[in-house]
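Q: My collaborator sent me two sequences in one message, no labels, and asked for predicted structures for both. Can we handle them in order? The first one she listed is below.
A: Yes, handling them in the order given. First sequence, followed by its C-alpha cells:
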Amino acid sequence: MAVRVFLVDDHEVVRRGLRELFEPQEDLEVVGEAGNAEEALDRVLGAKPDVALLDVRLPGESGIELCRDLRTALPELRCLMLTSFADDDALFSAILAGASGYLLKEIRGPELVSAVRRVAAGQSLIDPALTATVMDRLRGHREDERLAKLSPQERRILDLIAEGKTNRQIGTELYLAEKTVKNYVSNLLTKMGFARRTEAAVYATRSKLAQHPSD
C-alpha cells in the first residue's frame, strides 16, 4: 500500500511543488493539504495519513504546536518538519513535540522523498546525539525550576547542606537559631520534592559541578 502523505504549508506554490514531487512516486500518495494549523487539524483527522509534512512557521499556531496536537490525536502519525531556518530552539521544541524529522527546505527533491519513506517506515531523521542533548537541556530546565522555588536564604542553606554542615553549624554561620534552620531545611526539602537532606545535598553538589565543571 502507498504511504499516505498530508502537506501543511501556508504557501500554495510550495504545496503544489511538493504534490508534484510526490505524485509520480508509486509508493507515495498525497491525501490532503492545508494552509494553516486549524485547517490541518480538521482535514488530517479525516484523511488519516501516515506522514504529515509540516512547515515550522505557520500563521497562527506553529507547525510544532500542530505536530503536538496531531500526535496527541493520532499517535501513529509520523510528523516531518520543514523549515527555511536552522533554529536550535525550534529543533528542541520539535523533538519534544514528537517529530520524526526536522529538515531544511533547501533539501533536494529525491532526498525529501527518501525522508518521507524512511519516517513512514518508523525511522527517525533526528540524530540520536541531538536528541540526547535536548533531553539533557530539558533536565537542566527542570533542575533550574527546582532552584528557582527557593528563597535566597534557602539557597544559602542548601549550599551549606551540600558542604556537609549540620543544622547547628549552619545556624552558627548564618546567625540563626538551630530550630529556625531546621524549619528552613524542612521547607526547602518540600519545595524541591526531596524526602531527605542527603538527596538535596547530592542535587546541590551535582548542580555546582554542572555549572563549574573545571573547578
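Q: And the one she listed second?
A: Here it is, processed independently of the first:
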Amino acid sequence: MYDVIIVGSGPSGLTAAIYTTRGNLKTLVIAGAKWGGQLQLTTEVENFPGFPEGIQGPELMMAMRKQAEKFGAEFVDDDIPPTDLTKNPGGPFTIKIGEKEFTGKTVLIATGADAKMLGIPGEKELTGHGVSYCATCDGAFFRNKEIAVVGGGDSAMEEANFLTNFASRVYVIHRRDEFKASHVMQEKCKANPKITFVLNSAISEIIGTNSVEKVKLQNVQTNEETELPLQGVFVAIGHTPNTKVFPGIEITERGYVTHQYGTKTNIEGVFVSGDVQDDKYQQAITAAGYGCQAAIDIEKYLATKG
C-alpha cells in the first residue's frame, strides 16, 4: 500500500515525489514508457532557476528523477491504462498495469499536456532545433532572426508579440483569412512593425539540415506553393491535456482537470498538478510549483485520515 501514487514524471510529478518522499510518504511514480514530460523533447533550458549556463532538458529531468529516487520514490516506467478513480472515492485506489496491481491511499494526476503538432515533414526532426512550442521558453534563442508563429488564436498573437522582443521579423501564418483571436490582440499585432501576416496559408514542410532554414508554404485557396526562409517556427495551435486515461475526472470546457481548494479534484483523495490543470502558464517552473503544492496538500489530507 502506497501513501500516494503519482501518475506522470514531468517537472510536476517529480517535484511532488521529492516532497512526498521527504515527508515520509511511501511514493510510487508511474512514469510512463516515455518518462520525463515535454522537457525530454527540449534541448537547452535557460529559464529554470539554478542553472546560469542553462541545462539540457533531458539532463534536468534525469537530475530531478535521481533526486526523487534518492529519497525513496519507486518508479514504474510504463503507461497507465484507462482507470476509473470514481469507483472508490476516498480510496484506496487500485491501478492495474499489465499483470501488476498497485494500490494507493491517494493519487496525484500529473500527466501534463501535449502541444498540438502540425504533423508535417521536418517538424519532429527539427523540434528543439528551430521548431518550438513555447515562446516564453525559447524566444531568447532567436535574437535578430526571422521566425514564424503558426496559429490564429490569442496564444498565437501573444507569442508573436512576445517574440518581437528578440526576432527581427515575425511572420504569423494562418490557414484562414481571419483570426479567432480577440480584437484587442489582433490590433496589437497589426500595430507591431515587426509582425507580418501570411493568411490563407499553411506550412506543408519544414526544411533544414541541423536547424530550420526555410519552410514550404501552400496557399489553401490556390494550392500555390512558395518557400519562405526562416530560422525558427513556433507552433501555437493549442495543447491537449492528458486526461483520457481518467474517465470520471471533472474537466473544464478546454479539457483541463478542474481543481478546488488548492489541488483537490472532484474525487476525494485524488489530486492534480502541473500542465494537465494549467491552461495559462505551462512552464516547467510553474509545473514544479504545482507539484510542491499538491504534495503538501496530500500530506495534510493523509494526516487528517490518521
